[in-house]
Automatic annotation (TrEMBL):
Domain of life: Bacteria
Top EC class, one word: translocase
Source organism of this protein record: Isobaculum melis
GO molecular function: ABC-type quaternary ammonium compound transporting activity; ATP binding; ATP hydrolysis activity
The ABC transporter domain, residue ranges: 2-237
Pfam families attached to this UniProt entry: ABC_tran
Similarity-based family: Belongs to the ABC transporter superfamily.
EC nos: 7.6.2.9
PANTHER family given in the database record: OSMOPROTECTANT IMPORT ATP-BINDING PROTEIN OSMV
Alphabetic keyword roster: ATP-binding, Nucleotide-binding, Transport
Protein known as: ABC-type quaternary amine transporter
Amino acid sequence: MIQFENVTKEYDNGQPIISNLNLTIQEGEFFVLIGPSGCGKTTTLKMMNRLIPHTAGTIKIHGQEIHTYHLNELRWNIGYVLQQIALFPNMTVEENITVVPEMQKWSKDKMANRVTELLNSVGLDAESYRHRKPQALSGGEQQRIGVIRALAANPDIILMDEPFSALDPISRKKLQQDVLRLQKEVKKTIVFVTHDIQEALYLGDRIAIMRQGKIEQLGTPKEICNQPKNDFVKEFLGSENLPVTAQPMVTLLIEQGYFDASEALRTAPQLYLGDSLNELIHLLAVHNQVAIYDKECYLGLITSKHYLSYLAKELEKEGSAHE
Ligand SMILES: Nc1ncnc2c1ncn2[C@@H]1O[C@H](COP(=O)(O)OP(=O)(O)OP(=O)(O)O)[C@@H](O)[C@H]1O
Protein backbone atom coordinates (compact mmCIF):
# COMPACT_ATOMS: atom_id res chain seq x y z
CA MET A 1 0.00 0.00 0.00
CA ILE A 2 1.24 3.51 -0.85
CA GLN A 3 -0.12 6.42 1.19
CA PHE A 4 0.27 10.14 0.62
CA GLU A 5 -0.82 12.24 3.60
CA ASN A 6 -0.96 16.01 3.04
CA VAL A 7 2.01 15.85 0.71
CA THR A 8 3.33 19.10 -0.72
CA LYS A 9 6.18 19.70 -3.15
CA GLU A 10 7.67 23.12 -3.70
CA TYR A 11 10.78 24.09 -5.63
CA ASP A 12 12.99 27.05 -4.70
CA ASN A 13 10.51 29.64 -5.95
CA GLY A 14 8.06 28.53 -3.23
CA GLN A 15 5.27 27.77 -5.73
CA PRO A 16 3.62 24.48 -4.76
CA ILE A 17 3.79 21.94 -7.61
CA ILE A 18 1.84 19.44 -5.49
CA SER A 19 -0.42 20.76 -2.76
CA ASN A 20 -1.75 18.77 0.17
CA LEU A 21 -2.05 15.54 -1.76
CA ASN A 22 -3.94 12.75 0.00
CA LEU A 23 -3.99 9.43 -1.77
CA THR A 24 -4.02 5.74 -0.94
CA ILE A 25 -3.00 3.19 -3.55
CA GLN A 26 -3.99 -0.34 -2.60
CA GLU A 27 -1.79 -3.38 -2.84
CA GLY A 28 -2.13 -5.13 -6.22
CA GLU A 29 -3.94 -2.15 -7.73
CA PHE A 30 -3.36 -0.81 -11.24
CA PHE A 31 -3.44 2.89 -10.47
CA VAL A 32 -3.27 5.51 -13.23
CA LEU A 33 -2.26 9.16 -12.87
CA ILE A 34 -3.46 11.32 -15.74
CA GLY A 35 -3.76 15.03 -16.41
CA PRO A 36 -2.51 17.84 -18.63
CA SER A 37 1.19 18.51 -19.14
CA GLY A 38 2.84 20.04 -16.08
CA CYS A 39 0.08 19.06 -13.62
CA GLY A 40 2.54 17.08 -11.46
CA LYS A 41 2.14 13.43 -12.50
CA THR A 42 5.85 12.65 -12.82
CA THR A 43 6.62 14.59 -9.64
CA THR A 44 4.04 12.49 -7.76
CA LEU A 45 5.56 9.29 -9.16
CA LYS A 46 9.15 10.24 -8.41
CA MET A 47 8.35 11.22 -4.84
CA MET A 48 7.41 7.58 -4.20
CA ASN A 49 10.94 6.28 -4.82
CA ARG A 50 12.62 9.43 -3.48
CA LEU A 51 13.95 10.53 -6.86
CA ILE A 52 12.26 13.82 -5.91
CA PRO A 53 12.12 14.71 -2.20
CA HIS A 54 8.78 16.02 -0.94
CA THR A 55 8.65 19.28 0.98
CA ALA A 56 5.95 18.50 3.55
CA GLY A 57 3.57 15.73 4.57
CA THR A 58 4.16 11.99 4.78
CA ILE A 59 4.57 9.27 2.18
CA LYS A 60 4.33 5.70 3.46
CA ILE A 61 4.95 2.41 1.71
CA HIS A 62 3.62 -0.70 3.45
CA GLY A 63 2.83 1.57 6.41
CA GLN A 64 6.43 2.76 6.79
CA GLU A 65 7.55 6.35 6.10
CA ILE A 66 9.75 6.28 2.98
CA HIS A 67 12.58 8.22 4.63
CA THR A 68 13.05 5.48 7.18
CA TYR A 69 13.94 2.95 4.44
CA HIS A 70 17.52 2.51 3.36
CA LEU A 71 17.57 4.08 -0.11
CA ASN A 72 18.76 0.87 -1.84
CA GLU A 73 16.14 -1.19 -0.04
CA LEU A 74 13.44 1.27 -1.15
CA ARG A 75 14.59 1.45 -4.79
CA TRP A 76 15.11 -2.31 -5.14
CA ASN A 77 11.58 -2.84 -3.99
CA ILE A 78 10.20 -0.38 -6.55
CA GLY A 79 10.65 -1.11 -10.26
CA TYR A 80 10.75 1.89 -12.58
CA VAL A 81 9.95 2.07 -16.30
CA LEU A 82 10.54 5.27 -18.23
CA GLN A 83 9.19 6.68 -21.47
CA GLN A 84 12.63 6.99 -23.02
CA ILE A 85 13.89 3.49 -23.52
CA ALA A 86 16.71 3.60 -21.02
CA LEU A 87 18.53 0.35 -21.75
CA PHE A 88 22.31 0.40 -21.42
CA PRO A 89 23.50 0.28 -25.06
CA ASN A 90 26.75 -1.60 -24.37
CA MET A 91 25.12 -4.33 -22.35
CA THR A 92 23.27 -7.37 -23.69
CA VAL A 93 19.57 -7.90 -23.05
CA GLU A 94 20.49 -10.37 -20.30
CA GLU A 95 22.88 -7.92 -18.62
CA ASN A 96 20.30 -5.15 -18.85
CA ILE A 97 17.64 -7.30 -17.19
CA THR A 98 19.90 -8.44 -14.37
CA VAL A 99 21.27 -5.07 -13.25
CA VAL A 100 19.40 -5.13 -9.94
CA PRO A 101 19.69 -8.91 -9.28
CA GLU A 102 23.46 -8.48 -9.90
CA MET A 103 23.58 -5.73 -7.25
CA GLN A 104 21.67 -8.03 -4.94
CA LYS A 105 24.28 -10.71 -5.62
CA TRP A 106 21.99 -13.37 -7.05
CA SER A 107 23.75 -16.55 -8.25
CA LYS A 108 24.51 -16.84 -12.00
CA ASP A 109 22.06 -19.74 -12.37
CA LYS A 110 19.24 -17.92 -10.62
CA MET A 111 19.77 -14.86 -12.84
CA ALA A 112 19.89 -16.92 -16.04
CA ASN A 113 16.67 -18.71 -15.12
CA ARG A 114 14.99 -15.43 -14.27
CA VAL A 115 15.98 -13.94 -17.65
CA THR A 116 14.56 -16.97 -19.48
CA GLU A 117 11.33 -16.79 -17.52
CA LEU A 118 10.89 -13.04 -18.05
CA LEU A 119 11.70 -13.04 -21.78
CA ASN A 120 9.27 -15.89 -22.35
CA SER A 121 6.59 -14.07 -20.33
CA VAL A 122 6.52 -11.26 -22.91
CA GLY A 123 6.67 -13.53 -25.93
CA LEU A 124 10.39 -13.15 -26.73
CA ASP A 125 12.34 -16.32 -27.35
CA ALA A 126 14.94 -16.33 -24.57
CA GLU A 127 17.75 -18.00 -26.50
CA SER A 128 17.54 -15.73 -29.50
CA TYR A 129 17.20 -12.51 -27.51
CA ARG A 130 19.32 -12.79 -24.35
CA HIS A 131 22.68 -12.09 -26.02
CA ARG A 132 21.53 -9.27 -28.30
CA LYS A 133 22.45 -5.63 -27.74
CA PRO A 134 19.59 -3.08 -27.51
CA GLN A 135 20.32 -1.64 -30.98
CA ALA A 136 19.41 -5.03 -32.45
CA LEU A 137 15.84 -4.74 -31.08
CA SER A 138 12.79 -2.86 -32.33
CA GLY A 139 11.35 -0.03 -30.22
CA GLY A 140 8.56 -2.30 -28.96
CA GLU A 141 11.02 -5.05 -28.06
CA GLN A 142 13.26 -2.58 -26.22
CA GLN A 143 10.31 -1.32 -24.23
CA ARG A 144 9.36 -4.93 -23.39
CA ILE A 145 12.86 -5.38 -22.00
CA GLY A 146 12.38 -2.14 -20.05
CA VAL A 147 9.22 -3.58 -18.48
CA ILE A 148 10.70 -6.96 -17.56
CA ARG A 149 13.87 -5.32 -16.27
CA ALA A 150 11.68 -3.47 -13.76
CA LEU A 151 10.19 -6.83 -12.70
CA ALA A 152 13.51 -8.71 -12.54
CA ALA A 153 14.23 -8.50 -8.82
CA ASN A 154 10.59 -9.12 -8.02
CA PRO A 155 9.68 -5.72 -6.53
CA ASP A 156 6.23 -5.22 -4.97
CA ILE A 157 5.65 -1.93 -6.76
CA ILE A 158 6.28 -0.83 -10.34
CA LEU A 159 6.23 2.82 -11.36
CA MET A 160 5.69 3.47 -15.06
CA ASP A 161 6.08 6.93 -16.54
CA GLU A 162 4.41 7.07 -19.97
CA PRO A 163 6.15 3.82 -20.89
CA PHE A 164 4.38 3.25 -24.19
CA SER A 165 3.87 6.74 -25.54
CA ALA A 166 6.68 6.48 -28.12
CA LEU A 167 5.33 3.26 -29.63
CA ASP A 168 3.17 2.67 -32.68
CA PRO A 169 -0.49 1.79 -31.88
CA ILE A 170 -0.08 -1.97 -32.47
CA SER A 171 3.02 -2.40 -30.29
CA ARG A 172 1.37 -0.19 -27.73
CA LYS A 173 -1.77 -2.31 -27.56
CA LYS A 174 0.28 -5.49 -27.33
CA LEU A 175 2.38 -4.11 -24.49
CA GLN A 176 -0.70 -2.86 -22.65
CA GLN A 177 -2.10 -6.39 -22.85
CA ASP A 178 1.22 -7.88 -21.69
CA VAL A 179 1.42 -5.55 -18.72
CA LEU A 180 -2.17 -6.27 -17.67
CA ARG A 181 -1.57 -10.01 -17.90
CA LEU A 182 1.73 -9.80 -16.05
CA GLN A 183 0.17 -7.71 -13.32
CA LYS A 184 -2.60 -10.24 -12.87
CA GLU A 185 -0.12 -13.13 -12.74
CA VAL A 186 2.43 -11.55 -10.44
CA LYS A 187 0.03 -9.31 -8.45
CA LYS A 188 2.16 -6.16 -8.39
CA THR A 189 1.03 -2.69 -7.48
CA ILE A 190 1.45 -0.59 -10.61
CA VAL A 191 1.39 3.21 -10.67
CA PHE A 192 1.15 4.30 -14.29
CA VAL A 193 1.44 7.83 -15.69
CA THR A 194 -0.13 8.60 -19.04
CA HIS A 195 -1.52 11.46 -21.12
CA ASP A 196 -3.82 9.12 -22.96
CA ILE A 197 -7.33 8.78 -21.55
CA GLN A 198 -8.03 5.65 -23.65
CA GLU A 199 -4.97 3.99 -22.16
CA ALA A 200 -6.02 5.09 -18.66
CA LEU A 201 -9.55 3.72 -19.07
CA TYR A 202 -8.25 0.45 -20.49
CA LEU A 203 -5.57 -0.23 -17.89
CA GLY A 204 -6.65 1.40 -14.66
CA ASP A 205 -8.46 -0.21 -11.75
CA ARG A 206 -8.67 3.40 -10.54
CA ILE A 207 -7.67 6.64 -12.20
CA ALA A 208 -6.66 9.94 -10.60
CA ILE A 209 -7.26 12.94 -12.87
CA MET A 210 -4.88 15.72 -11.82
CA ARG A 211 -4.79 19.46 -12.41
CA GLN A 212 -2.21 21.90 -11.07
CA GLY A 213 -0.90 19.58 -8.38
CA LYS A 214 -4.29 18.45 -7.12
CA ILE A 215 -6.56 15.51 -7.80
CA GLU A 216 -9.77 16.64 -9.49
CA GLN A 217 -11.37 13.21 -9.49
CA LEU A 218 -10.38 9.76 -8.32
CA GLY A 219 -12.43 6.74 -9.30
CA THR A 220 -12.84 3.64 -11.40
CA PRO A 221 -13.01 4.10 -15.19
CA LYS A 222 -16.76 3.52 -14.99
CA GLU A 223 -17.27 6.15 -12.26
CA ILE A 224 -15.22 8.70 -14.15
CA CYS A 225 -17.01 8.14 -17.46
CA ASN A 226 -20.48 7.94 -15.95
CA GLN A 227 -20.14 10.65 -13.31
CA PRO A 228 -17.49 13.18 -14.24
CA LYS A 229 -17.24 15.34 -11.15
CA ASN A 230 -16.84 18.76 -12.78
CA ASP A 231 -16.38 20.61 -16.06
CA PHE A 232 -12.62 20.08 -16.02
CA VAL A 233 -13.01 16.30 -15.93
CA LYS A 234 -15.74 16.42 -18.58
CA GLU A 235 -13.57 18.56 -20.78
CA PHE A 236 -10.60 16.32 -20.18
CA LEU A 237 -12.57 13.25 -21.22
CA GLY A 238 -14.14 15.13 -24.12
CA SER A 239 -11.04 16.92 -25.33
CA GLU A 240 -9.42 13.65 -26.23
CA ASN A 241 -12.17 12.93 -28.79
CA LEU A 242 -12.98 9.68 -27.09
CA PRO A 243 -14.22 7.15 -29.59
CA VAL A 244 -17.33 5.37 -28.36
CA THR A 245 -16.17 2.17 -26.69
CA ALA A 246 -17.69 -1.23 -27.41
CA GLN A 247 -18.65 -1.64 -23.75
CA PRO A 248 -22.23 -0.20 -23.78
CA MET A 249 -23.15 -2.18 -26.90
CA VAL A 250 -21.60 -5.40 -25.58
CA THR A 251 -23.48 -4.91 -22.28
CA LEU A 252 -26.76 -4.53 -24.19
CA LEU A 253 -26.05 -7.62 -26.29
CA ILE A 254 -25.25 -9.65 -23.16
CA GLU A 255 -28.33 -8.39 -21.30
CA GLN A 256 -30.61 -9.22 -24.21
CA GLY A 257 -29.15 -12.67 -24.80
CA TYR A 258 -27.32 -11.94 -28.06
CA PHE A 259 -24.22 -13.52 -26.63
CA ASP A 260 -22.70 -16.93 -26.09
CA ALA A 261 -20.64 -17.73 -23.02
CA SER A 262 -19.02 -20.81 -24.57
CA GLU A 263 -15.44 -20.91 -25.81
CA ALA A 264 -14.69 -18.91 -28.95
CA LEU A 265 -12.94 -20.50 -31.92
CA ARG A 266 -9.16 -20.21 -31.67
CA THR A 267 -9.23 -18.18 -34.88
CA ALA A 268 -11.73 -15.63 -33.51
CA PRO A 269 -10.25 -12.13 -33.14
CA GLN A 270 -10.18 -10.63 -29.63
CA LEU A 271 -12.02 -7.51 -28.62
CA TYR A 272 -11.65 -5.73 -25.28
CA LEU A 273 -14.48 -3.74 -23.72
CA GLY A 274 -12.33 -0.60 -23.94
CA ASP A 275 -11.85 -1.02 -27.71
CA SER A 276 -14.01 1.11 -29.95
CA LEU A 277 -17.48 0.17 -31.13
CA ASN A 278 -16.21 0.73 -34.65
CA GLU A 279 -13.67 -2.01 -34.16
CA LEU A 280 -16.38 -4.45 -33.05
CA ILE A 281 -18.45 -3.67 -36.14
CA HIS A 282 -15.46 -3.99 -38.46
CA LEU A 283 -14.49 -7.34 -36.93
CA LEU A 284 -18.02 -8.68 -37.25
CA ALA A 285 -18.10 -7.62 -40.89
CA VAL A 286 -15.14 -9.93 -41.59
CA HIS A 287 -15.38 -12.70 -38.99
CA ASN A 288 -18.26 -14.91 -37.91
CA GLN A 289 -17.47 -14.43 -34.24
CA VAL A 290 -15.47 -12.17 -31.95
CA ALA A 291 -14.07 -13.21 -28.54
CA ILE A 292 -14.94 -10.60 -25.92
CA TYR A 293 -12.58 -9.81 -23.05
CA ASP A 294 -12.92 -7.61 -19.98
CA LYS A 295 -9.27 -6.79 -19.49
CA GLU A 296 -7.65 -10.23 -19.70
CA CYS A 297 -10.76 -12.11 -18.54
CA TYR A 298 -12.65 -13.92 -21.33
CA LEU A 299 -16.40 -13.20 -21.21
CA GLY A 300 -17.78 -15.06 -24.23
CA LEU A 301 -18.39 -14.55 -27.90
CA ILE A 302 -20.56 -12.38 -30.10
CA THR A 303 -21.41 -13.62 -33.59
CA SER A 304 -22.37 -11.52 -36.60
CA LYS A 305 -25.79 -13.23 -36.37
CA HIS A 306 -26.17 -11.99 -32.77
CA TYR A 307 -25.42 -8.45 -33.81
CA LEU A 308 -27.67 -8.47 -36.86
CA SER A 309 -30.53 -10.06 -34.89
CA TYR A 310 -30.18 -7.35 -32.26
CA LEU A 311 -30.24 -4.61 -34.92
CA ALA A 312 -33.25 -6.21 -36.64
CA LYS A 313 -35.13 -6.27 -33.33
CA GLU A 314 -34.26 -2.64 -32.65
CA LEU A 315 -35.42 -1.59 -36.14
CA GLU A 316 -38.65 -3.51 -35.63
CA LYS A 317 -39.21 -1.71 -32.32
CA GLU A 318 -38.52 1.65 -33.96
CA GLY A 319 -40.89 0.82 -36.83
CA SER A 320 -43.76 -0.10 -34.51
CA ALA A 321 -43.14 3.05 -32.44
CA HIS A 322 -43.75 5.16 -35.58
CA GLU A 323 -46.94 3.34 -36.63
N1 LIG B 1 13.48 21.20 -10.93
C1 LIG B 1 12.38 21.93 -11.08
N2 LIG B 1 12.33 23.22 -10.69
C2 LIG B 1 11.21 23.97 -10.83
N3 LIG B 1 10.06 23.49 -11.35
C3 LIG B 1 10.04 22.22 -11.76
C4 LIG B 1 11.18 21.36 -11.65
N4 LIG B 1 10.87 20.14 -12.12
C5 LIG B 1 9.56 20.22 -12.52
N5 LIG B 1 9.08 21.46 -12.31
C6 LIG B 1 7.71 21.93 -12.61
O1 LIG B 1 6.80 21.10 -11.90
C7 LIG B 1 5.58 21.01 -12.63
C8 LIG B 1 5.14 19.55 -12.67
O2 LIG B 1 6.05 18.80 -13.46
P1 LIG B 1 5.81 17.26 -13.78
O3 LIG B 1 6.97 16.80 -14.60
O4 LIG B 1 5.52 16.55 -12.53
O5 LIG B 1 4.50 17.36 -14.66
P2 LIG B 1 3.77 16.23 -15.52
O6 LIG B 1 2.33 16.30 -15.18
O7 LIG B 1 4.46 14.93 -15.36
O8 LIG B 1 3.99 16.80 -16.99
P3 LIG B 1 4.21 16.07 -18.40
O9 LIG B 1 2.93 15.37 -18.68
O10 LIG B 1 4.46 17.20 -19.35
O11 LIG B 1 5.37 15.13 -18.26
C9 LIG B 1 5.84 21.62 -14.00
O12 LIG B 1 5.24 22.89 -14.04
C10 LIG B 1 7.34 21.73 -14.06
O13 LIG B 1 7.72 22.87 -14.81
